[in-house]
Design a protein that fits this description.
Layout: E1 7-12, E2 17-24, E3 27-35, H1 47-69, E4 78-84, H2 88-105, E5 109-113, H3 114-120, E6 136-141, E7 146-153, E8 156-162, H4 168-178, H5 186-193, H6 216-232, H7 236-267, E9 271-275, H8 282-295, E10 298-300, H9 312-323
Parallel strand pairs: 1-4, 4-5, 6-9, 9-10
Antiparallel strand pairs: 1-2, 2-3, 6-7, 7-8
The chain binds 5'-O-[(R)-(carboxyoxy)(hydroxy)phosphoryl]adenosine (KG4) and zinc ion.
Zinc ion binds at residues 114, 118, 142, 276, 309.
Amino acid sequence: MKKENIYILGIESSCDDTSAAVLCNDKILSNVVADQKIHAEYGGVVPELASRAHQQNIVPVVDRAIERAGISKDQLSAIAFTRGPGLMGSLLVGTSFAKSLAYGLNIPLIDVNHMQAHILAHFIDEDDHNKPPFPFLAMTISGGHTQIVKVSNYFEMEVLGETIDDAVGEAYDKSGKVLGLGYPAGPEIDKRAQLGNPKAYHFTKPKVEGLGFSFSGLKTAILYFVQRETKNNPDFVKENINDICASIQYTIIGILMDKLKLAVKQTGIKHIAIGGGVSANSGIRKALKDAEQNHGWTTYIPKFEYTTDNAAMIAIVGYLKYLEHDFSDFNVMATARLKF
Ligand code: KG4
Ligand code: ZN
């Protein structure tokens, strides 16, 4: 007997991207993302503006995702949405919308943890992507999080270490601000880093116990370094921007790789997956490929479109939970500091 197809609509609105995606089982039919340009002029996400933009975007984004998937709303099996972690005002838009639509269509509602979704994005079925076998280590690196997680099963995850202050994406974005680059600065620093000398300047790596991370000291060190150098030469940043970016990237990738190596040593697990916006970074991608050669790791790097925030990753968690009949009550609430 042929198994019935399951169609999941995923909705993501935790930060500044409004996204909707439709999956047929574990395959993507559509993944629409509307990013919010408005925050660039403020040099960071303004929560109040983000929730207003989600309000404007959510209906057209969901409509487009369903249209591109080539299905009708009535074919949907369930609606999955990001419950948290994230900005409360932003989460409320996606949560309320998902509830209303699921209620109206009389189909199950499925709440999803955004950080688990960054990890489980690896289980979207793609021809050119291998799925990691359990157990594996996942490093989630984004604008809001920096974690190393032991993944024993789809829903059995243990945070082995995380940042005690800033996230790695914040380190990129705040360093970029000091250097006069636009927001978000991660992609820009990455681009320039590839043209510069990574050993031109030295920044000290923080000393944090075990698998913890810290990035706030690095941000301050970069600020003082730039202030000191521009006193001697007002054009210092302009003249050396590629070398500065390369040196910052070299330091950050060094910090991430040191902790991953320690996690592998502690757990004996050599299957390593990354996720989150910073996993788009060319430096971390190359460092992981090198570790395959040098340390015998097998690494799993998400496709570019599943690195930054997207609803396809929410929909795949929805699909996996649907198979378990793990549905939400309609009184489920958005939770800004949602844990695993
Ligand atoms: O996962 P994401 O889209 O949103 C959060 O959940 O935070 O991650 C956004 C972060 C930003 O800090 C951005 O600067 C960073 O990811 N990012 C990068 C790159 N592309 C995005 N950082 C370094 N290199 C990149 N290529
Ligand atoms: Zn994210």
